Amino acid sequence: MIASSPIIIALDCASAAGAVALVECLPSSGYSLKIGKELFTREGPPVVHEFVARGIPVFLDLKFHDIPNTVAAACRAAAELGVWMVNVHISGGAEMLRAAREALATYRERPLLIGVTVLTSLGAADLLSIGISGDPATQVERLTRLAFACGLDGVVCSPQEIAAVKAVAGAGFLTVTPGIRAAGADLDDQQRVATPRAAIAAGGDYLVIGRPITRAADPVAALADITSQIVHTAPRA
Q1: Going from the N-terminus, what domains does the chain have, and what CATH number goes with each?
Q2: Closest CA to 142 of 177, 168, 175
Q3: In this structure, what are the phi and psi dihedrals at residue 161, rounded to the nearest 5 degrees?
Q4: What's the 3-state SS for 173-237?
Q5: Rg, C-alpha atoms of the chain
Q6: pLDDT in tens, 62-114
Q7: pTM (2 d.p.)
Q8: Of the residues 34, 37, 63, 166, which is catalytic?
Q9: Within 13 Å, how many C-alpha atoms sit on residue 230's CB side?
Q10: Is 49 helix (H, G, I), strand (E, B) or coil?
Q11: How many CB atoms sit inside 10 A of residue 29's CB?
Q12: On the chain, which terminus has fewer CB atoms closer than 10 Å, C or N?
């Protein structure tokens, strides 16, 4: 399954019923879906099956980070659910990343393997508190080099780091960017953000958008507005 739109809607819902109700009010195409920790922990694989069966690409956002054997097994389990994309924390190290890649390589239609760099909720002071010196952009570049060397398909980064990722790993290396907000909107718990138009102009491949759509008074109108912002925006050369 291949996503034809750069928009990934984050299903940060407390139940499968809530997620289904949201999706059923949206158009049948023009986006993919992200299922994260809360929804998957509450509902398990059936909620993934629900949307895969509808033909909607699913990004399983569980950010695997463990010993190589455990992460490889988790990636195989994700592939068998039929998901389009799965992610791991790059900070798990090269051996873990290679184990994940090799586990997925055995599938004829494997999920994209994306590595998480620095969460968009973190700033330089947060990194320093866990022993990482330098600003988030520097750490994103370090982790991107490792992910690229280990054969991953791309990284999760903030929209502010898209250009740096492409400079390190090339235009074909995918960027998946949360932290998408309209100009002047509430940042919620995000720090490193950009508008949808700016993220696409910077060369972003996939934009993860949750609350600006899912908590909008009219999610259909919010999705249509974001789509209109990016459809005619060309990446910067």
Answers
A1: 7-231 (3.20.20.70)
A2: 168
A3: -110, 5
A4: CEEEECCECCCCCCCCCCCCCECHHHHHHCCCCEEEECHHHHCCCCHHHHHHHHHHHHHCCCCCC
A5: 17
A6: 999 999 999 999 999 999 999 999 999 999 999 999 999 999 999 999 999 99
A7: 0.91
A8: 63
A9: 28
A10: helix
A11: 10
A12: C
